[in-house]
Amino acid sequence: MIRIFVSGLIALTISSAAVAAEGASSARPAVDPDSPPCSMVKAGELQKFVGAPATIRETSARLCSWAGATEGAYVQVMLFPGESLGVPAGQERAYFDQTMGGEQDQYGSETFAEVPDVGEKAWGLKLADNPQKYYKVYAFKGKDSLTIATNGIGYDATVEIARIAVSRM
User: Fold this and answer.
1) How far apart are CA 54 and CA 47, in angstroms?
2) Distance between the two ends of the chain, CA-based, in angstroms?
3) Claim: this prediction has a pTM higher than 0.90
């Protein structure tokens, strides 16, 4: 009887530890508002697109994801410094062009539009069947690439955010 109780207690403890660990892994990751992609746009600039307050939801060395009060709306800023991609110095633009060729192969070249006055070169992804209003702008300036991905805010707003972000590169 004691043996059954002890083994049941051990099983319960192991089970509880597994549930606790599972719950911990689904917790929201810590954010770093000082990560380089987060410096490309400010909360006050994004509020008119995602709703107030605009808050940082996720960060990494290359990503800053923002959301606000508007349900389903978000902005992701992805910054790719040329040297971080392992691209030989002086080949950053060629690498960007090659990457854009791959994106155009994936989505279809007819879904891309050149975006004027955004960095040295920029392309906007405009999907035809797009009920979620998911858009991207890919930009290149200097040695670095930047991608703005949005949901629920529209293509023109995505381009506007890209202009702001590229001005800070």
Assistant:
1) 5
2) 70
3) no
